[in-house]
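Here is one such protein, fold included:

. . .
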Amino acid sequence: MSARKRSGAVIAIAVVIGALLTGCMSQNPQDGLSRHVVVPAPQLPVNTLTAARRIEITEQQCPAAVTQEALRALPESAANAVDFLASSAQCALISTVLQAPVQPETFISPLQYTAPCTSPAAVSAWAHYDDDLIFGSPTIPNAIAAGQCIRTLFITGSDAGMGAEYALERERGIRAAYDVMRGVTGEWVDAAVTLRSGVTITTTSPVDNPGIMLLLVRLPDGGLDAGGFSATGHQSLPQLLSGALAEMTTTDTGQPITLPALEATIAEVVQSYAPQSVLAHLPKLDPRSEGDHPDHSATGNLVAGLVDNGLIDGAVVQYAIGYPSDHNAVNLEGDELWKKLEAFAAYASHDSVLHCSTPKSCLGVRKFGEWLQRQYLVPDVEIPAP
């Protein structure tokens, strides 16, 4: 072989070796020059869902709700949400995660997707359906007027031992009251949502204003003596908190709820919205609660306990004095009082116990008229240590 031929062979071998070392080589047909193409590094997964879990979700639990490709592309918080919804048989809610315009940084609850807030949130927790109207007003209607996102949690079904229809009528009343407070009457839509706490609640919201939402747990009303009612097995919140009851069952579905599950539910609702304000009943820990309804005090104790455990920010929490507020001076009057009475009257027209349906007649109802003319709030920092 001539030197010239050997030289050409060496060059050819060198070109092949160079191509192998750099990944690949392409020829530009216009300039005849070799150009190296860099092979991209493998893309890291966006979330921590394993291949096995993706298969389980898409082929076994929720085959019609999501594809593996969609799961691979989800950010971690959304992937965690889909994972939970699939494992809790809530496949129909997965579309809310996939279509969410903004994904939360951390998945806390399906409420972040099914009932998101687009404005600063005001969250409150009450024992019964009229407690917010009596002891949380004018704070709540003022928050509505300011355009805040309203999330009102009711712990009991407010049945007072009088059966399901009475409780449902009170629910109709509380919706009517919120229509008065928002200045629009319209249809409301209900939905069942299973929270990460394991508790299934009912959410109800005006069709035209998802910024207002009531969240219903529907545990039995415990009565003024905390002994409950025979119709609901003598269950009460104070008994649950004391340990006398291991669990309570809801008045609608008979769902069993333990104290840890109820605490986790309240914390989950509050944490879902990072609220600017939280309002609840005055806890029994405070001497100013003496004489209040036992369900009120127990609800306040639940919230205060979550504050003490660092699950709710005490800096944004206030507690409303309940029945004992009538020991204090009247501090509501004029237009502010009248608006409060209008909302309460809309509710009361659905509550057969009250026998009032106008602002004036409700103001004349024994005890209720006194409470309605007052609102006294106590910041968390003033609550005695347990």
